[in-house]
Amino acid sequence: MTQKSATPFSGRHIAAIMIAFFGTVIAVNMLMAMLATGTFGGTVVDNSYVASQKFNGWLGEARAQKTLGWQEQIGLNGDRRIDLMLASERGPLQGASATATARHPLGRAPERTFGFTEIRPGQYRAATPLPAGRWIVHFNIKADGREMRLIEDLQ
Q1: How confident is the model over 37-45, as a mean pLDDT?
Q2: What is the rounded distance in angstroms from the CA atom of residue 65 to the CA atom of residue 146?
Q3: CB 82 within 8 A of CB 100
Q4: Is residue 57 a contact partner of residue 66, using CB atoms and an 8 Å limit?
Q5: Please, which pLDDT band fits residue 123 given cuts at 50, 70 and 90?
Q6: Which CATH code for domain 71-154?
Q7: 130: helix, coil or strand?
Q8: Residue in 117, 118, 113, 120 with CA at minimum distance from that of residue 139
Q9: Which of 79, 90, 132, 139 would you call most buried, defined as having the most Cβ atoms within 10 angstroms of its Cβ?
Q10: How far apart are the first and last CA of the chain?
Q11: Is the pLDDT of residue 72 over 80?
Q12: pLDDT value for 42
């Protein structure tokens, strides 16, 4: 009986294994980096230092807004128009002026602006429908010489 001799494990074998291993790691890292930078929508604020200087002012505005006692309900109707219901301690908030800006979370679609008309006391409806998808909607509501700002995530 003749036996075949096994090929000895050499430096070429270890070099091939190391090249395959590190080549796979580098290829996966490059793919993940390309996917991450390709889907990045941009910055939240242009200058974080300036934003940090304004932060306490924003907190003060939020506290003042809570003291208004206004309550809101926001949703989409069957036509994908934004419905906004506003109430105060005295009942429906009538005669308010409301506008909204919808932004796509990743910045892939252009911003959309909406005006609202009062269809019933305290109920306001956007003039145009919101396109399908996820949107971050910034509301600016003014009534009785006061102002309220809201941010709502709508799909």
Answers
A1: 72
A2: 9
A3: yes
A4: no
A5: very high
A6: 2.60.40.10
A7: coil
A8: 113
A9: 139
A10: 75
A11: yes
A12: 66
